[in-house]
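Fig. S4 source data, part A: sequence.
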Amino acid sequence: MVVPVFAAGSGVGAVRRVVSLVPSLTEAVATTAPGLLAGVTDWCSHPADLAVPRIGGTKNPDLARITALAPDLVIANDEENRRPDLDALRAAGLPVWVTDIRTLDQAFHSLDRLLTVGCGLPRPAWLDAAEAAWAGVLPLPGPARRAVVPIWRRPWMVLGHDTFAGDLLRRLGLTLPHAEDPARPERYPAVPLPELLAGRPDLVVLPDEPYRFTPEDGPEAFPGIPAALVSGRHLTWYGPSLVEAPAVLAEQLRQARPAGER
């Protein structure tokens, strides 16, 4: 879902300068019309050759710096960015477009609206390619596997109810018990490791962001359980990475091995 929020009565008007507060949306704009970007966060890592002024982090952007850049549009995300920061930008007279994405279908609709309506661009070919790539996805062969998907350690936090990443994994044939547990309605519940192990999952999926799980940091906590180390960008970003995400994630899930067998 996209929630456009603009200065009262002003509309977006011609968009020539965009500040992005979301790494995946930065990549979407940069791939479609790189000349629009006037500022991005310190965490915006794609495209790799992105040469645009940096305006701080997603949670602590430099509001004065953003205002000085005089963007025609600031793009943000309800989950990644703090509402007080967005309210302050609106109060400074800047149009702010906020996305709220919980499923793959919402991502496709949101990206189309942001780029075509928000930024006034033609619909990009990569978005059509991403939709086609996911339309052809089949669950991985074999019985459905119950998967624990940590996104943080110390404390352990996992994918829960109503998440974009969870929707992608379900399309690949995984079931996420913490997404279906009525006792844990949170989107990212904190669950002690003994409880995660007691659930006897068939698989643990370890992305490299937001926590950077590695072969040496993560799999050892789940002895005997196959662990899949996956690309966080392909699991959690909505943008051009969605074109290759089905193939990348499927291959990484197929390579799942218990700790010590890598």
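Fig. S4 source data, part B ends here. The two ends are 40 Å apart (CA to CA).
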